[in-house]
Specification:
Layout: H1 2-32, H2 56-62, E1 67-72, H3 77-91, E2 97-100, H4 108-114, E3 119-127, E4 131-132, H5 137-145, E5 154-161, H6 170-181, E6 185-186, E7 191-194, H7 199-220
Parallel strand pairs: 1-2, 1-3, 3-5, 5-6, 5-7
Antiparallel strand pairs: 3-4
Keywords: Flavoprotein, Membrane, Transmembrane, Transmembrane helix
Protein name: Flavodoxin-like domain-containing protein
InterPro entries: Flavdoxin-like, Flavodoxin/NO_synth, Flavoprotein-like_sf
């Protein structure tokens, strides 16, 4: 009986340790880890799967698009921002093509410069000590070593990085400088978001200023798309104050709950 009792106690203790470890892991994984992007873009023309290494300019021309959003993301934040901008443009009646920058062909920027009223928006993260993301590495190397003129390319750059590193937002700064020196036309000033200084708010403010300018530009060129803008419908439901917890309270995040608190470039 003593042997059986000892075995039972050992078993209970082992189950307690395993249970405690699982609870700790669950809490750490879902409470401490920065939230993943849950934004989904509006169906067509936003998925990279069938567009990989394809002619983005041909796709834009065929679908009467004038806005191209290119993102270079390592942890997913730049991708989420690009998809958020793509969706917000759609809500404003503007269609765009959203692609991973690795899908850009070498001559696409040249063709975009010749596309009437086109606008290319770069949302680029800098990883570690000034390193480009894996998907943007080829493009950054091409910009650094090529002298191909990009005269007339209208563009805007939004950078994501951390001021904890000396080479803060090095990739976005390089993209903005190189394209401008090759004849590109800045549609908006370079904006650099800092992981340590409310990156989400920086993006929201940049987006809020950018979209009206895009609409104004297309109106002046009489190139506004035919699809109307869409209004979101909301239903307000009163929630008791005592049932609201801090980690479930929406405070204006453009992507997911808690993204103001937990940020990654």
């Amino acid at each position: 009986m003593d042997w059986l009792r000892l075995t039972l106690l050992d078993t209970l203790f082992g189950l307690f340790v395993v249970g405690f470890s699982l609870i700790y892991w669950y809490k750490y994984s879902f409470s401490i880890r920065p939230p993943r992007c849950e934004t989904t873009a509006h169906g067509y023309l936003s998925s990279d799967a069938h567009l990989k290494r394809s002619n983005s300019v041909e796709i834009m021309h065929r679908n009467d698009l004038s806005i191209l959003i290119l993102y270079g993301s390592q942890t997913g934040t730049a991708f989420c921002f690009a998809q958020a901008l793509h969706s917000r443009l759609f809500d404003s009646g503007l269609r765009s093509l959203c692609l991973d920058i690795e899908n850009l062909l070498s001559d696409d920027l040249l063709k975009l410069a010749q596309l009437p009223n086109s606008l290319t928006i770069f949302i680029v993260a800098t990883y570690g000590e000034g390193e480009p993301t894996d998907s943007a590495r080829h493009f950054i190397e091409w910009l650094e070593h090529s002298n191909t003129p990009l005269t007339g390319l209208t563009f805007a750059v939004f950078g994501l990085g951390s001021s904890a590193y000396s080479a803060f937002n090095a990739c976005a700064t390089l993209v903005d400088r190189k394209i401008y020196r090759r004849g590109g036309v800045r549609f908006a000033d370079l904006v650099l978001a800092d992981e340590l200084d409310n990156m989400e708010a920086t993006f929201t403010n940049w987006q809020a200023k950018l979209i009206p300018r895009i609409i104004d530009r297309l109106q002046k060129s009489k190139n506004l798309p035919s699809n109307p803008s869409y209004e979101r419908l909301y239903k307000t439901i009163p929630v008791p104050q005592e049932s609201i917890t801090e980690n479930r309270l929406f405070v204006g995040e453009p992507l997911t709950l808690g993204s103001y608190r937990y940020q990654k470039p």
